[in-house]
Each structure stands twice: as C-alpha cells, then as structure tokens.
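Below is how a single chain appears once it has passed through the pipeline. First comes the sequence as given, then the structure the pipeline wrote out for it. We keep one example in the README because the format questions we get most often are answered faster by looking than by reading.
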Amino acid sequence: MPAKSKKQQMAAGAALAAKRGKKSKSSLRGASKSMAKSMSTKELEKMAHAKRKKLPTRAKKSKKSSSKKSKSRKKR
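Resulting structure:
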C-alpha cells in the first residue's frame, strides 16, 4: 500500500532505515516508531517508495471525526 501523504512516506522511510540498521530505533518518534514495530520490511518499502510529487503534505481527515465533535457538546 503506497503512502497517502508526504508525512506518512517520510515516517515509513525513517522506520525502514531503523529496521535495516542505518538509524537507531531509539531515535524514532510518533508514527515512525509504531510503523517500525507493526509493519514488515516489505510493507515499509512499498509505503516509502511512493512518488512524492503528487502527494499532499497531510492526509485529509475523514468526515466521521468532525461529526463526533458536534454531538459531544454538553447542554447547560
């Protein structure tokens, strides 16, 4: 599965470097740290080798998360 955003691709590249031993695993933070633990090397390669030119900087949020905010308001 290719990356959906530039940030996701960069995180996958950092996780892949840590898996290969080119970068220390203790230097990973956030998404790259969880990717290194949960994904295989082949999955990380597919995600990291996506073409970056057409990708957005960040992936768009789904509509589900925005509807939760409006429903959770308390009445006073």
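The two ends are 46 Å apart (CA to CA).

See the next section for the split statistics.
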